[in-house]
Amino acid sequence: MTRPGRIALTTLAVVLGATLVLAGALWIVAGRLLRGGDRMFEFSPDLPGDLIPSTELTMDGAGMQDTRQLSRYSFAFRTNALGFRGLEVDVDSARVVMVLGDGYGFGTSVDGEHTLCDELNRLEEGKRPRTVCVNAAAPGMALADMFQYLREKGHRLKPAIVLVVMSWDDVWEMERPVVMRDIFRCMHTSRLCLLKAMYYRLVVGVFKMKDKVLDNSDRSEELMHRKLLAGFLELLAAVRDFAGGWGGRLVVLTEYVEYDTVRKGIAGLGIPLVVLKDRLGDRIEYAPDGHWAASTHLAAARLVAEWLAGEEGRSLDRGSVRTGANARDVRER
Questions:
Q1: CATH code for the domain in which residue 137 is found
Q2: Largest interatomic CA distance in the chain
Q3: What integer best gives the mean pLDDT of the chain?
Q4: If residue 275 lies in a helix (H) or strand (E), which one and from where to where?
Q5: Residue of 189 and 147 predicted with greater confidence
Q6: N or C: which end of the chain has fewer CB within 10 A?
Q7: Has residue 2 been placed in a domain?
């Protein structure tokens, strides 16, 4: 064998060896990660919610302070027997409000029972019609995840109101190459799935889709947003129509509207839009990691309660309000 040939063969062997070593290291790391940390999701077909039922969980993360230094943080919460975050709720013969969204709707960084859904349950306590809120949001969810969830489990409770908490980056996340709910479903039982989740997060950057979209385009931010908005509105209309199949109504709650085309687009679909900044201005408070503080969850719940008590809410009461399924049936079906 010639000297160049030996060099090429040696280089190939080194590269293959390094690849095998790296793959082995990743496999070991994935195994340790699989055994460590809190497991949050259940995805049981016997539950209307996606979380492990009737348990206490602590989630760890990292928050960005004003100094732009990452700091560790954690928050604790409980789940109920239906697989939702929050205290036990009686959905029997109640008007069910189902919150869908990402960490903002879920209450990332908020300890205990002080999320939008918890506060709405307190505000609606003792009122007629009896209204119960269930928190079906989860960190990392995008609109595609929410629609998948409704198709799989929405019929279990047939909520009268599906409240989508729209984050500022939801439109940009239409470029996500994966439905995160599919990843969350298997990442705590499969090393390959866990490695796939790490790839999507660290390499693809599924939680930084705005940056990814703009990095790969020479067009303006607004033009790219408008392009993605068309798909977002189409999917939002599908969520609206699916909920309407059992007489439910879709309402969108958001902190602020990034472009006026979003407001016009949602209005064109006939979907009520509740905007926090329209009422609170700059008084919105945040946790250190950038998610809503507990006080903002309370303010959002008050705005939703106002909407429920308004003319649109009263028309629902007089007309096509659907009440929750029998609580025992929900658990047993």
A1: 3.40.50.1110
A2: 88
A3: 86
A4: strand 273-275
A5: 147
A6: N
A7: no
In a domain, 249, yes or no: yes
Counting every residue written for the chain, the total comes to 333
The predicted-structure confidence for 54-79, as pLDDT tens digits, reads as follows 999 988 766 654 444 556 778 999 99
Mean pLDDT calculated for residue range 212-220: 92
Residue type at 228 in one-letter notation: L
Per-residue pLDDT of 117-154, as tens digits, reads 999 999 999 998 999 999 999 999 999 999 999 999 99
> In this predicted structure, what is the pLDDT of residue 8?
66
By three-state DSSP, how is residue 292 classified?
strand
Q: Phi/psi of residue 107, each to 5°? A: 100, 35
In the three-class reduction of DSSP (H, G, I as helix; E, B as strand; rest coil), residue 196 is classed as helix
| Count of the separate structural domains present in the chain | 1
- Alpha carbons 15 and 9: distance in angstroms, whole number: 10
What is the per-residue pLDDT for 309? 92
Within a domain: 39:
no
Closest CA to 117 of 300, 322, 288, 314: 300
SS3 (DSSP) at 250: strand
Residue 216 lies in a domain: yes
Work out the number of other CB atoms within 10 angstroms of the CB of residue 1: 8
Hey, is 280 helix, strand or coil? Answer: helix
